Amino acid sequence: xxxxxxxxxxxxxxxxxxxxxxxxxxxxxxxxxxxxxxxxxxxxxxxxxxxxxxxxxxxxxxxxxxxxxxxxxxxxxxxxxxxxxxxxxxxxxxxxxxxxxxxxxxxxxxxxxxxxxxxxxxxxxxxxxxxxxxxxxxxxxxxxxxxxxxxxxxxxxxxxxxxxxxxxxxxxxxxxxxxxxxxxxxxxxxxxxxxxxxxxxxxxxxxxxxxxxxxxxxxxxxxxxxxxxxxxxxxxxxxxxxxxxxxxxxxxxxxxxxxxxxxxxxxxxxxxxxxxxxxxxxxxxxxxxxxxxxxxxxxxxxxxxxxxxxxxxxxxxxxxxxxxxxxxxxxxxxxxxxxxxxxxxxxxxxxxxxxxxxxxxxxxxxxxxxxxxxxxxxxxxxxxxxxxxxxxxxxxxxxxxxxxxxxxxxxxxxxxxxxxxxxxxxxxxxxxxxxxxxxxxxxxxxxxxxxxxxxxxxxxxxxxxxxxxxxxxxxxxxxxxxxxxxxxxxxxxxxxxxxxxxxxxxxxxxxxxxxxxxxxxxxxxxxxxxxxxxxxxxxxxxxxxxxxxxxxxxxxxxxxxxxxxxxxxxxxxxxxxxxxxxxxxxxxxxxxxxxxxxxxxxxxxxxxxxxxxxxxxxxxxxxxxxxxxxxxxxxxxxxxxxxxxxxxxxxxxxxxxxxxxxxxxxxxxxxxxxxxxxxxxxxxxxxxxxxxxxxxxxxxxxxxxxxxxxxxxxxxxxxxxxxxxxxxxxxxxxxxxxxxxxxxxxxxxxxxxxxxxxxxxxxxxxxxxxxxxxxxxxxxxxxxxxxxxxxxxxxxxxxxxxxxxxxxxxxxxxxxxxxxxxxxxxxxxxxxxxxxxxxxxxxxxxxxxxxxxxxxxxxxxxxxxxxxxxxxxxxxxxxxxxxxxxxxxxxxxxxxxxxxxxxxxxxxxxxxxxxxxxxxxxxxxxxxxxxxxx
Length: 934
What we know:
Keywords: ATP-binding, Kinase, Nucleotide-binding, Phosphoprotein, Transferase, Two-component regulatory system. It catalyses: ATP + protein L-histidine = ADP + protein N-phospho-L-histidine. The protein has 934 residues and is of the alpha+beta class. It has six domains: 2-121, Beta-Lactamase (2-Layer Sandwich), CATH 3.30.450.20; 151-308, Beta-Lactamase; 324-430, PAS domain (Beta-Lactamase, 2-Layer Sandwich), CATH 3.30.450.20; 434-554, 2-Layer Sandwich (Beta-Lactamase), CATH 3.30.450.20; 561-686, Beta-Lactamase, CATH 3.30.450; 779-933, 2-Layer Sandwich (Heat Shock Protein 90), CATH 3.30.565. It contains 25 helices and 35 strands. The strands form seven sheets. Strands 3-2-1-6-5-4 form a six-stranded antiparallel sheet. A six-stranded antiparallel sheet has the order 9-8-7-12-11-10, sandwiched between helices. It is extended and about 160 Å long. The model has no long low-confidence stretch (mean pLDDT 80).
């Protein structure tokens, strides 16, 4: 077997033949070794989209369409020749479908199997053109067959038509629109009913509604006469339609084609295509294919309309027979070999007939009459009379199984087929047997029924009325109104009078005004009542019309009550909307119930979504909060809990990680799980603003407490820091006066001078801090010579360094300029240098700068004592001093940070304990160096 397989592989490779297996649900091809090598695949599969990208561009659309059609229509034939890009360059392949297997693919989808072979590419131009034209004609033919298949398999005509229009637009592979328009019955207006446009184009469908025919007279004359319009350019339009040419030009139309749509010899509309920003010389194939699709659409729409009508009528008749409030059975007569009838079978019946027969349908539908009835021969004789008489017959039938009397109408719709329709006449029979009792009962009901009843003759004159009618209309005596005519009542509109004359049953509502009676009859009532009335025609036993019966109900109190309920509901909804309070009531077991609009809104859901899709799902609720609520529902179902209250986070609409806060209260009002009911009421209200206000208050409180602490720390620190240099100045000033020794005086003067500088720096820091707090810190931007600034600073501060410490400047460029505030930059660097001098006893302090992407970075690097890692995050905070024995306020670095940030830069420190520190800050902007100037 291994040898045979190797031999097969070699033969397939030499013949350049392979196979493929398409998983239509998985969306990929399984390829043979030949294909894997040709396509340079890492494995043995390639997705549909990746394979399509290997097809040459001018064939790609055709191959994609053919494949989609083959997949959806399930054709048993598929064969194509096309070029692809392979690892050997452009090659031509010929493929055909071998077989299909249903339900063997991914998730039970279909699979297709096919063979593929490398073929010689067409070399001559005529061969290429011929192959291209054949493929194009095959593609068009495929469009037509696919269009027909869509109509045959798809009940949604609108989607079928839209897909066909898309196919047309895709075939021409250009920018444009395809549309269908229809004329009204009089052919005076036309309207666009379908439209497909290229991506990025605006639709014109809404603008093309009810367009008068005379607006484009030439156009409509051509279409209504059954002629197509085929124009390669607008220049081919007649001179007299210049306005139409202008309209087309404004829409950017270059070429267009329109074909009439006909039903028989009647033009009902047209189908057109407009190409935008490109010309096309329409060929005969273009027109024939376009017209064919138009004819398909026209014919299929007419067929679908006819089919829908027939389906509707069949469904109507079927429902009529099965759901009408009367019995229905259909019987088929059976004949022997001599064509003599000997029995009949019940072939169909409606559900209500089972009520009369007293047995389920399945016990008599499809059963012979001889097996059902002992007197089936008598029934057979009656059925034969119906067949021979060629008309309907009537009869009465008693069903002893149910004790019901029925009246039958039996007729034959076709040969050996008999239909029987029957109604329950039991009440009529019983009424005839007890006429006196029934008549007395009727009179009692007529007199005391809680609805007004009036009886009129066939001309509309009042014959009788009951007590409730006297009460409704405020009539003292029945004799005062007997004889008035219904059709002369001034409260009854003419439209209702006409309906009463022409229809068997009419119901209507009136605002019955007693002020409009005007002598029609005398009444003790006034104002207006809400009246609901029904009028039914009366017929005698022979079916002769004999009069009317009118039943009236005074709905005034009920309408008033409903209005009050409606007003209360509107008021409640208004309060709910204003207060953001939602309400829901439902059965937890089936999640069916009712919720107002605000409840949905609070839960982050749309109002039209089903309540069952929200409760128990809560997709907009934070997962942690959702778990708590779902756990509560589990405990409710087993009777452990009855109430839940919590603050839930609901995803804010239009965001991905922002939450509203909703207070949710759920309580159990009825617990009847054995009856399938656990009723709960949920009330929620939005507390987002409350939460935000609470957070702001907490933040303000924390800030106030922090400011109070800072204030206390500031006062305590400043009192100490100011007192220290003042004490030194006062003390050594006194000693300076008393001593005569020159060296001592010089030493005292040095100490006084140092404390003067310290006090001056302290006052300066306090003033800077106050300006920062007040927002009045001023900046003056200008050109800054960075090298000159650093040199001046180092020169002025060298005298402050200790004996074993060197203060040096490290210039990076011979020329370096930046636009910023020179004094503030100087202030920050000098502060860094002062700190470095304080904490560096030997080594060096280096001042410099480096070029960064965002601007210029200044630094001061020392070999001092360094800073512990845990203190680094607090180094720029106010009043932070790493060594309490070193003079300083602890404000300098905080002021530096404020200066740098207001200049738009960043500040930081890198340090290691015992190895020194590097303080740096950046100044954004354009840096001018000798390199940038060259």
